Amino acid sequence: MADYSISSSNGKIVLKLKESIFSNLNDILHPKKRMNDETSTTISPPLENDSLNIQPGEWVQINSIEEISGTLDERQKYDGLYFMPEMERFCGKKYKVFKMAEIIEFESTAEVRKLKKPVILLEGVYCDGEHHDGCDRACFHFWREIWLKRIRDVKT
Q1: Domain segments of the chain: what residues?
Q2: What is the pTM assigned to this prediction?
């Protein structure tokens, strides 16, 4: 079974998440500074005014695995969201933004929460289930803005 499912409610996307996707929901609701083991320097979330403000319909390029790794803490997370091993195959490629997800519902408890920072869903970027016992649900991968670059001239 996938870590999340997606539904639509009143024009907003609602994500139903299993608790396994966020080991500590406070990480995503209240981002903190974290340490990068390799350099022992503090990594902070981007400042609000540094936001790319990526919108549905825009094109982005996913950063390289090296760039993304530099944003992750010791648990392979940024702002509480895992960068899962199966996401690596999409690095360096260009995709169209499908939706921004701001509300999550945990399937196990039916608890609904609003995220401080939305996750980004990209067209055609789905989990293949390889790391989830062959799951064939084809769930969207969740992306943080810091892992993406806006591109203006799209040559796919």
Answers
A1: 4-151
A2: 0.66
DSSP string over the chain:
--SEEEEEETTEEEEEE-GGG-S-HHHHHS---EE-TTT--EE-PPPGGG-----TT-EEEEPPHHHHHTT--TTSEETTEE--GGGGGGTT-EEEEEEEEEEEEETTT--EEEEEEEEEEETT-B--STTTTT----PBPPB-GGGEEEESS---
Cα–Cα separations (whole angstroms), residue 38 to 68, 70, 74, 137: 14, 9, 10, 35
pLDDT tens-digit map of 50-70: 578 899 999 999 999 999 999
